[in-house]
Structures are given as structure tokens and as C-alpha cells.
Amino acid sequence: MADITAEHAAVKPEPQSRARFSLAPFASYLQALPLAIVLGVFLLLPIATIVMVSFWDYDSIRIIPDFMLLNYEETLLSWVTWKTYLNTLKYTLIVWALTLFIGFWVAYFLAFHVRSVGMQMMLFLICTVPFLTSNIIRMISWIPFLGRNGLINSTLINMGVIDAPLEFLLFSDFAVVLAMVHLYTLFMVVPIFNTLMRIDRALIEAARDAGANAFQILTNVIIPLAKPGIAIGTIFVVTLTMGDFITVRFMSGGQSASVGLMIANQISVLQYPAAAANAVVLLGVVLLIVAGILRVVNIRKEL
Amino acid sequence: MEGERRGLGFWVLAIFFAVFVLFLYGPLTTIFILSFQGPDGGLTFPMNGVSLRWFRNLFETQAVGDFGGAFTRSFVLGLMVMGTTVFVSLLAGMAFRRPFWGAGPLFYTAIASLIVPSILVSLGIGLLFQVTGFRPAWYSSAFGAHLTWALPFGLLIMFAVFNRFNPSYEEAARDLGASPWQTFRHVLLPLILPSLIGVGLFGFTLSYDEFARTLMTSGSFNTLPLEIYGMTTNVTTPVLYALGTVTTGFSLLIIVLALGAIYLSQRARRRAG
Fold first, then answer.
1. Are B242 and B54 in contact (CB under 8 A)?
2. Which residues pair with A57 in a beta bridge?
3. How far A188 CA lies from chain B's nearest CA (Å)?
4. Residue A3 predicted with pLDDT over 60
5. Using CB atoms, which residue from B42, B98, B121 is nearest to A10?
6. CA distance A238 to A218
7. Are residues A39 and B110, on separate chains, in Cβ contact within 8 Å?
8. Number of H helices, E strands in chain A
9. Does B7 fall in a domain?
10. Cis peptide before B46, with omega less than 30 degrees from 0?
11. How many domains in chain B?
């Protein structure tokens, strides 16, 4: 997630190629073409299809080309939708706050307290590896901990803290949030670590020489400079949580609702146009949130 | 910080970090242990003896569905996504080194690909195939869906690489009369090879583990994560954990192989330089 952006990357001028005929003027286009094709066919076209189908009609077995607003009316005028959005926002807010707190301090420790580069790389790698393993299995792996006869309940009972197993551990909002924090904290750690590593250590020395204490250095130097990383992490965590359906379904045992899950359920009963209208609304909300974050924090320098 | 004695802050954060690592790896370790559960053991502790029964169970098709087939599909799909991600993000990374018309919108579309909720990609590609009359399959629609997730990551890695890349190596090669292809093949490629292996690792593992984007796009045959998810609803024996151990072990093997390859290519580069 490091130093990107077209303008940024484009600053270094290439010397003009020689006079003989070459593909050079077209080279960039040829090189960018595969990416453009993949994104066009598998991202833009599908989203356009969703928008189109969201105006279509449907019955129990097929979808029928049409132009009607009924799907949107049904989505937006339903009490269930609003309640579901509220619940999803609740998850998002809690998960965001937790991942930000954990992610920031983990990144802070790696960036400022680990002194050797080799150790830093190794600890960073240790944090990254779970990201490259299956989310489903990482969710399943909570069963032995949280289950009715799981580690937590049996330990508490053995210690005499509780008499009967706690029911809220697995298949509850608690489990959903726990699993999401487990799955998504890394998306905070990496971008924040990246910005912290680029803070000029002389700034911190200067602040200290000017008489700032550790807390003042944190709030006046480090956090302001870490904002772009925090914003990128926030965008990742918020969009992942807003669209999540599998964690909610699995960890709540089907007892909690989220927007993504609502869409997934509509898909499973083949109400594609309804799911499409719902998806368009979700995309709108997510883009609004991202736009809001970008207004508050300028991440362009970071990209 | 640097050059100072370890204060209280260090120890508090060190413990915090250790707890975080425990939080990341604890659950995985638990199912690893429980997958060796004895024949009469259940999904939770205590261990009822130790056995390999659940691993054997895994390879009897009738017990857990088509594990072998799902694994093969996910493996091949992972390789397809890996190859495509490396190829496409390398080319696009090189394209973005020069300004070109449309660079901005293309870049933002790639970033949007990370932000669009995966259920939308899944639904969108599913609908696109349905409307245009193509049959979704793991090697076509799910392949594209996985690319929308793996490619932007590959691209971001390539951006990071090229931003730190010193163009004077290429200029030197050119001055010595190397053709563009020779410059690419003998100068650029060896220098960025370790990063390309990293891109490949991301491509493979992100596809191999992807669930949400595969849901509506895999067609009539399941990939491994879909198969595993299906099992969670109807399998209540430790065979679930055995499956988790085997697939996670496979992921870890891939990661170790990739890291080994990165290490070797860096060493080769250092020796050559």
C-alpha cells in the first residue's frame, strides 16, 4: 500500500526513445491494456449490470427486463432495511474502533520499539501470514474456544466463576465482532505501519528537545503524520465490514442481520433485481463513507 | 526510542503485541491440535486420545463430499490467478511509470476494485453471465471475480517497487546498446524478481482462500472454501478441523516456498551485483 498514484509515479521522466520507429509512444497503452480489460469486464460491466437489473421485474423463476422503481421502493421503504443498516453500522463502528486501537499500537510497537530491521521484518511477517490463510477456517477455529463446551466456558466453570456455560460466546454479536476484529485488524496494521516508518525520526527528536513529553509527541507529531495510514486502514476495515455477510452468517448462527447478508439471502431465493437494488444502495452508502473519509484526510500523498 | 533504555512503554506494548500474536495464532493452533482428536472425541476439548482418524476420513469421498475435486479446482484456479496477476500487474506497473492519457481513471478503478464490497462483485458477475447467456464456471466467472481482488494488490506492490526503482540502471543498459527487450530481460526483471514472487504469492493465496467472490460465480462445481463452508453446516466431527489443518498447512507451505524463492533470488542478485 505504499507510494503510488499515477501522477506520482509519472514524475520520473523517461529519456525520449531513439529516432528509429518504435512502439514507445503506444507502449504505456499496450502495457495498461490487460489491466483495463480485466477491470472493465469483471468490475465495471458487472456493476453496470447490477444497476440495470435493479430496475428489472422478477417472478419466482426468472428475471424480466423492465424499467421500474419498485425494487428501490421496497428496499428503501422497508423498516427491515433500515434496521439492518443500523445493525451493520453498529458492527462497523465497533469493529473500526477496535481494529484502529489494536492496529495502531501494534504498528507503533513495530515501527518505534523494534530496533533491528531483521526483527522488524520478521514480526511484520508474523502479523501478515494469517492474512494469507482461509477466512472460513479462521472463523471455524473459534468454535473450540467459544462453543458451549469450549475452552472459555469450561475454564470459567472449573474456576468456579460461573455455574452454567455462557450462551452469548458463540452465535452472537459478540462472536461476530470478535471474528471481524480477528480477520480485519491486519488491514489497519499494514498502512499505519507504513506511514509510521516514514516519519522522520528527527521530528521526534526535535519535539523532545523542545520539551514535549511522550504523550505530546504522540498527539502532536506522530498521530497527525500517521493520519493517511489511519485513513487507508479505515477505508479497508469499513468497506470490508459494511459488505460482510459470511462472518455475520457464520458467527451469529444466522441470528444477526447485515446488509451483505440481506443481499446474500435475496440472491439465494433468486430475487436478483431486489438484491441488485439493495446492492446499489449499499455501494452508494460505502462510496459516501469513503468520500467522507477522503474529505477529512488527504491520502493522495500517500498513494 | 532509538538509543534509549527500554522503558515501561516498551514492555507494555511488547506484551500487547504478544497478546495480539496469540490472538492471531491461538485459534488456528487449537484446531491443529484438535484435528488429532481420538476416534470418539468431539469438536471441543478435552482430547479423547490421539488419532489420525479424521485425516483418513477426509480422503473418503462419501464422508465429506468432494474434497479432492474441490482442492484441485482451487489449486488450478490459484495458479491461473497467480500467473495473470503477475503478468498484468507487472505490465500495468511499467505503464504507470510514464504519464499516459487515462492513467488517473484507470488507477482509481483499480483502487475501487478493493473498495467495492465483494458481494457486489459476486452478484454483478453472476448477473452479467446470466444476462449474456454464458454459464458461470470456476475457470471463467470465478477467475474474473478473484482477479478483481488479487490484481489491485499486485498493482500496489508494483507501484511500491517502481517508486523505489532507480532508472539509471536501465539508462546505463541503454547507453551500452541494449535493446528495450534486453534491458527488460537482463536488467529490470532480475532486479524486481523478488517482488514479482511476492505478487505471485498474493495472487495465489488470495484466490485459494477467496469465498465471498466465489459464491455466485463458481458455477456447478465448488472451490475449496465453498466446500469447507458447506461442511460447516452439516459436519459436526473433527474432520472439519482436519480439513482446516490440511488446507492451512498447504497455505503455509506455499508461503514458505515463496519466501524461500524470494530469499534465493535476492541472494543471487546480491552475488551478481
1. yes
2. A64
3. 13
4. no
5. B98
6. 25
7. yes
8. 16, 2
9. no
10. yes
11. 1
Higher-confidence residue: A150 or B64? A150
Of residues A15, A28, A109, nearest to B100 (C-beta): A28
Chain B closest CA to A104's CA: distance in Å? 11
Cell numbers at B266, concatenated: 535476492
3-class DSSP assignment, residue B70: helix
Cβ of residue A99 closer than 8 Å to a chain B Cβ: no
Which grid coordinates are listed for A219?
498527539
Torsion sign across C-alpha atoms B221, B227, B233, B239: positive
Give the pLDDT confidence of A155-212 residue by residue, as tens digits.
888 888 887 777 777 888 899 999 999 999 999 999 999 899 988 889 988 998 998 8
Residues of B in contact with A106 (CB under 8 A): 16-17, 20
Q: Which domains occur in chain A, in start order? A: 78-296 (1.10.3720.10)
B107 is written with which cell numbers?
488507477
Low-confidence ranges of chain B (pLDDT < 50): 1-3
C-alpha cell at A99: 481494529
B1 part of a folded domain = no
Q: pLDDT for A232-290, tens place per residue?
A: 999 999 999 998 988 898 888 878 889 999 999 988 888 889 999 999 999 999 999 99
Q: Does B236 touch chain A if contact means CB atoms closer than 8 Å?
A: no
User: Taking a C-beta distance cutoff of 8 angstroms, is the pair B47, B38 a contact?
Assistant: yes
Q: How far apart are CA B204 and CA B227, in angstroms?
A: 18
Please check whether residue B167 lies inside any domain of the structure.
yes
DSSP H stretches of helix in A129-244? 135-140, 143-146, 151-158, 173-197, 201-209, 214-217, 223-243
Question: Closest by alpha carbon to B269, among B201, B196, B174?
Answer: B196
Whether residue B58 lies within 8 A of chain A, CB to CB, comes out as no
Is B82 an 8 Å CB contact of chain A?
A: no
The answer to whether residue B13 is domain-embedded is no
CATH number at residue B131: 1.10.3720.10
Domain that holds residue B220: 22-272
Name every chain B residue with its beta carbon within 8 A of the beta carbon of A31: 91-92, 94-95
